[in-house]
Amino acid sequence: MITIRPARDGDLDGFLTLAAQVEHWFGPMAEEPGFHRAVETHIRTGAALIAEATELAEASGPVGGLLFGADPPTYHVHWLVTAAHCRGAGVGRRLMAEAMLRYVSGPGTVEVVTFGPDHPGAVESGARTFYEKLGFAPGEPTDPGPEGGSRQIYRLDVPADVRQV
After folding, report:
1. Which residues pair with 5 in a beta bridge?
2. Comparing C-alpha atoms, which of 138, 145, 49, 25 is closest to residue 102?
3. At 10, is the secondary structure helix, strand, or coil?
4. Residue 156: closest CA among 94, 77, 78
5. Peptide bond into 141 cis (omega under 30)
6. Edge-to-edge strand ranges of the sheet holding 2-6
7. Cβ atoms 4, 95 nearer than 8 A
8. In this structure, how many other beta carbons lie within 10 angstroms of the beta carbon of residue 140?
9. Residues 6, 46 contacting (CB under 8 angstroms)
10. Which residues lie closer than 8 Å to 55 by C-beta, 6 or more apart?
């Protein structure tokens, strides 16, 4: 079973472990002080969520993490990662559903920057398909990621009565 909860001060190492699993797509994070500060700030402000496996066999740490930002009526998924062994199992969907409940009040727009269509991680990670299944629509290209790969903004319009994703 997977549970979603607000991240706590002791969760930084879990975020860094998750980050290390996706550095080949996003560039260095786990050893970057700026990433550490971003995670710590999101935790301190209550804008970070952790997905944990509650069954003993999987309980070696977080299986997903999300950093969120809000400047209503615009909301931002700053970072969302699912552990490699849990991708496709609904962890990301559960993190997004919890974020929508906790942080979003409509009407508004949720934005996320993800891989551009030509980025190797676009297919391998499934990120673009993931967001499209949640109802996000591709928008304009944006600045390349730190590793030099293309990026694109995806948006989800949120009605006055926020819906679950």
Report:
1. 50
2. 49
3. helix
4. 77
5. no
6. 2-6, 48-53, 62-71, 74-82, 108-115, 151-158, 137-142
7. yes
8. 7
9. yes
10. 1
Q: What is the phi-psi region of residue 33: left when phi exceeds 0, alpha when psi lies from -120 to 50, beta otherwise? A: alpha
* Measured distance CA(100)–CA(49) in Å, rounded: 12
Looking at residue 5, its pLDDT comes to 97
Pairing, β 2-6 against β 137-142: unpaired
Tens of pLDDT along 56-103? 554 567 999 999 999 999 999 999 999 989 988 999 999 999 999 999
Question: Is residue 71 classed exposed, middle or buried when 0-12, 13-18 and 19+ CB atoms within 10 A define those classes?
Answer: exposed
Beta bridge partners of 56: none
If you count DSSP H runs as helices and E runs as strands, how many of each does the chain have, helices first?
Answer: 6, 7
Prediction pTM value:
0.91
Amino acid identity, position 104: V
For the chain, give the secondary structure using H, E and C: CEEEEECCHHHHHHHHHHHHHCHHHHCCCCCCHHHHHHHHHHHHCCCEEEEEECCHHHCCCEEEEEEEEEECCEEEEEEEEECHHHCCCCHHHHHHHHHHHHHCCCCEEEEEEEECCCCHHHHHCCHHHHHHHCCCEEEEEECCCCCCCCEEEEEEEECCCCCCC
**Distance from C-alpha of 6 to C-alpha of 43, rounded to nearest angstrom:** 8
